[in-house]
Fold this sequence. Notes:
By secondary structure, the chain is α/β, with parallel strands linked by helices.
Amino acid sequence: MTANRSHDKEAISVMRAAIRLGVTHIDTAELYGDGHAEELVGEAIREFDRKTLFITTKVKSSNLRYEDVMKAAKRSLKRLMTEYVDLYLVHAPNESLPVGDTMRAMDDLADSKMTRFVGVSNFSVEQMQKAQQASRHRIVANQIEYNLLTRNSGMYNTDMETRIIPYCQKEGVAVVAYRPLAKGELAKLGFALLDELAEKYGKTQAQIAINWLITKSNIVTIPKTMRIERVKENLAAVGWKLSAEDSCRLDHEFPMRE
Length: 258
């Protein structure tokens, strides 16, 4: 989403077209455009049956005191023009604030049906464990940066593949991978193995990279785009599956960043 309001109509149009093509999960946050992204999502979804959509938004890390979480959630719901969100996430941990205070607010939001589920984002294993211990409601998701290039070297986390993902899979916590195409790097020619597999499967490099993600246990992804042709391309990454051998090759042979 963008804070440049000259693109508002385009953003709304792309979201509506994506929904008509079958997209049901829309991810946003109060941080994006200082809340304006939520306003755009709210406008885009107005003409659709709310029950058919899964809306995720996030409370920013500076708003994690109890009262701040509650107020932030109410502001988000107002901007989204909905009575509830499907998933409310702590956008990033804030070690200077007690996680118990934050999770008490998340529990109360779930109890009051302002959110159906609660989760976290950019949390390490240890931070997840503290949040889980402090929460009455099950933490259902951890949204982290993860793609073929960024395996253990994200902006917030450095052990996504070696620790966070195995822990989430063990705990039954969904991993929501953001930046699945590494800001477009994985949608281009130039990675020999990706190019080889794209030719083999008759798919694009982006489709191979996304399929590699979503064929893993308990991992979903949220590719970002402002172009409807990219939405169509991303959607074509589902409905088929890389072979176990080719997925393993990507696991072990692809030149990840360290």
